[in-house]
Design brief:
Elements: E1 4-5, H1 18-28, H2 35-50, E2 58-69, E3 79-96, E4 101-105, E5 112-114, H3 123-135, E6 142-149, H4 157-175, H5 188-206, H6 212-219, E7 226-230, E8 235-239, E9 248-253, H7 259-280, H8 298-304, H9 310-332, H10 335-353, H11 358-369, E10 375-380, E11 386-391, H12 396-404, E12 416-419
Parallel strand pairs: 4-6
Antiparallel strand pairs: 1-8, 2-3, 3-6, 3-7, 4-5, 7-8, 9-11, 9-12, 10-11
Helix pairs in contact: 3-4, 3-5, 4-5, 4-6, 5-6, 7-9, 8-9, 9-10
């Protein structure tokens, strides 16, 4: 392939979630802002909330991406397919003269205060501290930050990658005493440095490896809707849709608690490591990564390892293989097959990988019953309470309305649905 390359359950709603609920309402109203509008809002909010004191501010913008089939690349260096969102995120960062850093979020009156040097801070302040440490571990000053975005927090890794890349795009020039906006179009060397900083900070904050796919997608510069990423080589390939073959997309979200998804991923990370060791002890000595099974006998490999870990092996390798099938479906504009692969992935997540809940099952069943009405498929994205829907553009609104009408007994959270 001619890849391009970039270098080698919550008990209460956190205060920083509010602006993203506000953003969801804006998205649901089908308001799509231009990058300059995100930036203008973030700059104005910085002045409105914190005044004009402090250093010159640096602004950065990043467009959102969402994984179609990508989450398996947290566990080994496989292939991932991501979808570009119309929505994005803008941040403005400057030094302040106070003892704490301050974050202003659109739609929330409360100011978040934290110590930017304390990497044990909870939530996004902790991630900010990890990012700052990557740029300059000796930095002792505090910051003012304003953030305007329309990327749902429920997307988990996709949201965190966008946040990390946006903050780094602002922090790097700020700490180098450069003022104004970062220059557009970073060089490949600069992208590589940003990628490495983001991955190091995110992996440290997560407490486990973080897939490069999401960061690479955020750093890519292309207009095509899909991106195929090889997380082994760090290469990527934009996938265009043939003219006149438009597909509609929606997101269903019922919890913005990403902590439970991160915590529950640690046992899965351990299982993935044990699966590889089992293979290496059972006639697959040359296997260095699960991606090496791409062109080998999966059934033979499954039979070679202990029964208790066979489902995990089947899921991870099948997900990786299905990414290539998704690309083939896009090029043929075979959306029925594309949606079928999404449903196969969802079934595997439920039976072999244990990331789903009863509400995921209800949404999946609803999508299956709506197949004749133009809904092609649904799949969990981000290993949490967020699902991606594919279908005919005119079919999505009614389907998403039907999801919001689920009885309250099915979830303790309000179901958010919106078209992307």
């Amino acid at each position: 392939m001619d890849f391009r390359k970039i270098g080698t359950e919550e008990s209460s709603t956190p205060s920083f979630v509010g602006p993203f609920l506000y953003a969801l309402n804006r998205m649901q109203a089908n308001e799509v802002l231009r990058p300059s509008q995100y930036i203008d809002r973030a700059q104005q909010m910085l002045t409105d909330r914190f005044g004009n004191t402090g250093s010159d501010a640096v602004v950065a913008y990043n467009q959102g991406m969402v994984g179609v089939i990508a989450d398996h690349t947290h566990y080994f260096a496989g292939f991932a397919l991501l979808l570009r969102l119309k929505q994005g995120m803008a941040v403005v960062v400057r030094y302040n003269d106070g003892e704490v850093s301050r974050v202003a979020l659109e739609g929330v009156n409360t100011i978040i205060e934290f110590d930017a040097r304390n990497r044990s801070e909870d939530g996004l302040p902790g991630l900010f501290a990890h990012l700052l440490h990557e740029v300059d571990p000796e930095e002792s000053r505090q910051f003012d930050v304003s953030l305007v975005g329309a990327i749902p927090t429920g997307l988990g890794a996709a949201f965190h990658a966008a946040f990390a890349v946006s903050i780094l795009k602002a922090l790097n020039p700020l700490l180098k005493s450069e003022s104004g906006s970062p220059e557009q179009g970073e060089s490949e060397e600069e992208k590589s440095a940003l990628r490495d900083q983001a991955l190091s900070a995110l992996s440290s904050w997560y407490g486990r490896s973080f897939s490069p796919a999401y960061v690479i997608a955020c750093l890519s510069e292309h207009e095509d809707p899909f991106l195929l990423v090889d997380t082994g080589s760090m290469e990527y390939l934009p996938i265009e849709i043939p003219p006149g073959a438009k597909l509609g997309w929606g997101i269903i979200e019922w919890s913005r608690d990403w902590h439970s998804a991160i915590t529950s991923s640690h046992p899965r990370m351990k299982v993935a490591g044990l699966v590889l060791k089992d293979l290496q002890k059972s006639g697959f000595e040359s296997i260095e990564s699960l991606r090496d099974l791409e062109h080998q006998d999966l059934e033979k490999a499954i039979e070679a390892i202990p029964r208790r870990r066979r489902a995990a092996l089947k899921h991870l390798v099948s997900e990786n293989r299905n990414v290539q099938k998704l690309v083939a479906a896009i090029r043929k504009t075979d959306w029925q097959f594309f949606g079928g692969l999404m449903m196969i992935s969802q079934a595997s997540k439920a039976t072999d990988w244990d990331t789903t809940s009863s509400l995921h099952e209800l949404v999946t069943n609803k999508a299956e019953s709506a197949s004749l009405e133009g809904i092609f498929g649904v799949v969990q994205t981000g290993e949490g309470s967020c699902m991606l829907v594919a279908g005919q553009p005119f079919s999505l609104p009614a389907f998403l309305d039907s999801i919001r009408e689920f009885p309250d007994v099915h979830t303790s959270h309000e179901i958010e649905t919106f078209i992307i």
